[in-house]
Amino acid sequence: MKITEVELLLLQGKPAFDHGSFQPLVLKLGTDEGLTGYGELSMAIGNSRWEAVGAVRDLAGEIKGRDFRNTTQLWERMARQNLWAMSGGCPLYAAISAIDMALWDLKGKWLEVPLYQLLGGKCRDAVPCYASQIQFGWRGGAGKAVTPEELADQAAQAVEEGYRWIKLDPMGYSDQGVWKGWNLTGILEPRILRTVSQRMEAVRRAVGDGVGIIVENHCLTDAASAIDLIRLLETVEISLFEEVTAPDRPEALKTVRERTCAHLSAGEKLVARAGFQPYITQRLVDVIQPDLGICGGVTEIMPICAMAQMYDIQVSLHTCHGPISTAASLQVEAALPNLLLHEVHRVAALEENQALGSVPLRPVGGMYAVPEGHGIGQEPSKWALDHCERIKL
């Protein structure tokens, strides 16, 4: 029952945008009885993956030779007895999360049951989804949708596939098509407000009033600009505004809360229960969005979601990573009584990235079936294993 092998797999994914890469980081744990467990670090996007690789390297010695069944004990060893984990940090907690995910995968395989059975059983047989990041193009997109017409077309295509919810960032691309190409803090220029308004009005006309729209802010706005944008879009009837302020400024989000009537969400960059506590106990959000590969893994996400339930806050896990993360998130979401939606990021909709998993995971009619294999019900595909970079630890 002991962990004998720790290995990182850098999978070769395909980005869904023209301004970055997509390289899922998968952790593999081997045991003395021949079981193999997988977890994923939520660092596939961005430029911090090597920090996370270093964190896994540092933590490998803490788990080798130990019983994989003792998930709580090992989590405490990595997070509570680690001098530098005490104050959080996304790369370090991504490593903790992936290890924890792989431990639960091992436990499910050892007991020969899906992960959701270890979390209280299923609350649902299928998980409702939303199409996320329409601005990167959805079906047949060229990597970006900038004009109102382009955004409306991509949104309509997602709805045709059966999605009843969509998410887009209507201010991420400037009017010239440059990602993060204008300043979105403070008092906004009239041309920015006009562009955002035209984009969102076109999307609403294209999808009708039977589709929920989530506006993604990517933390590019601050309290002042977020308030202006929320008020600007009142007639478009937005269901949810996501990440309207930086995650380290809950007081800024409180200002937005007090000065608008919008439903708000946040949480993808927060780690551990302590990071989520002010957002939940002060009820700064209506929907909390922990990332299973960042917040602390399965061991930590369940009490976070239970805390949210106490305050009538719904949960929508942040998922913009590979098939391992997708499958593990679906297992957790199946067991959550306060789940709202599962995020189908544009990268997860690409067939090339779905092919990185041994089990194809494709939503049908805006719904995901819950994986029924043992553990998380997913492993890297043969192609993914044959074409990945390996780092033995």
What is the strand content?
5-15%
How many separate domains?
Answer: 2
The CATH first-level class of the largest domain comes to: Alpha Beta
Low-confidence residue ranges = none
- CATH topological fold name of the largest domain: TIM Barrel
Radius of gyration: 20 Å
Structural category is: alpha/beta
The rough form would be described as globular
Query: How far apart, in Å, are the first and last alpha carbons?
Result: 19 Å
What is the N-to-C succession of helices and strands? EEEHHHHEHEHEHEHEHEHEHEHHEHE
Total number of strands = 13
Describe the 3D structure.
- The protein is α/β, with parallel strands linked by helices and 393 residues long.
- It folds into two domains: 121 residues, Enolase-like, domain 1, CATH 3.30.390.10; 253 residues, Enolase-like C-terminal domain (TIM Barrel, Alpha-Beta Barrel).
- The protein is 38% helix and 15% strand.
- It is built from 14 helices and 13 strands.
- The strands form two sheets. Strands 4, 5, 6, 7, 8, 9, 10, 11 and 12 form a nine-stranded mixed β-sheet that branches.
- The radius of gyration is 20 Å and the shape is globular.
- The mean pLDDT is 95.
